[in-house]
Specification:
This protein is mainly alpha-helical. The protein folds into two domains: 115 residues, Four Helix Bundle (Hemerythrin (Met), subunit A); 133 residues, Helix Hairpins. The chain contains eight helices and no strands. Helix 2 runs antiparallel to helix 3. The radius of gyration is 27 Å and the shape is flat. The chain starts with a helix and ends with a helix. The mean pLDDT is 78.
Amino acid sequence: MIRKLFLNDKFILSLILLNSVILFIGGYVSAENNGLLLFIDNSITILFILEMLIKLKEFKFIGYFKSNWNLFDFILILLSLPALLTFLLNANFVDLSFLLVFRILRVFKAFRFFKFIPNVSELLSGIQRALKASVFIFISFVIYIFVIGMLSFYLFRESGSENFKNPMISLYSTFKIFTVEGWYEIPEQITESYSKLASFFTYLYFIFIVLTGGIFGLSLVNSIFVDSMVSDNNDELERKIDQLDSKVTDILKKL
């Protein structure tokens, strides 16, 4: 009975959903009052471990790890163990609170149910094909972000802006500008103490960045990625068109 229960995907999915709800509620409860939530959360971890052991016995070691989904589960369970040990051993003498972040990884067990999505294999192969096709343009885009980020750092580090006070923050600010989300706030903050001429060239500089990185750059990366994802469908469509053209040609020849 227990074996069948843990081999039932619906039961496992319900545990994953319950785990997600507990983790969400736990974010609103103080550490002093979340004893019950911690108990439920770690009980779910134990149930996931029990599921893994039952499947290991059912499918044997080699059979279990043949499935990438089972391997994925195994890794997530291993990453959840520090939080469980902290709870069971009441290890308050050592600050292991940072290990509790691994609890959230169990939510990713829900990804295993992607296999029930129709044509998911074609979808994943499309994503893989798109990643291969866009890897070089992506690397080029990252290099461009680095160049613009470092250039902006040396140009505006003395401006008093928090967005360019060190190279890492400058790179982050550059990426934020490339997303075309609130980019106008950054130059306005920089030019508060600038002269009219310096402000003019600063605005011109950021307009150039938004055009080249935010509009053309991201659009290029997205278009290559999407085109590569659907290229398999386009190939199939072209093949059918060629077949249709061939049949029409044969019919015309007979006429």
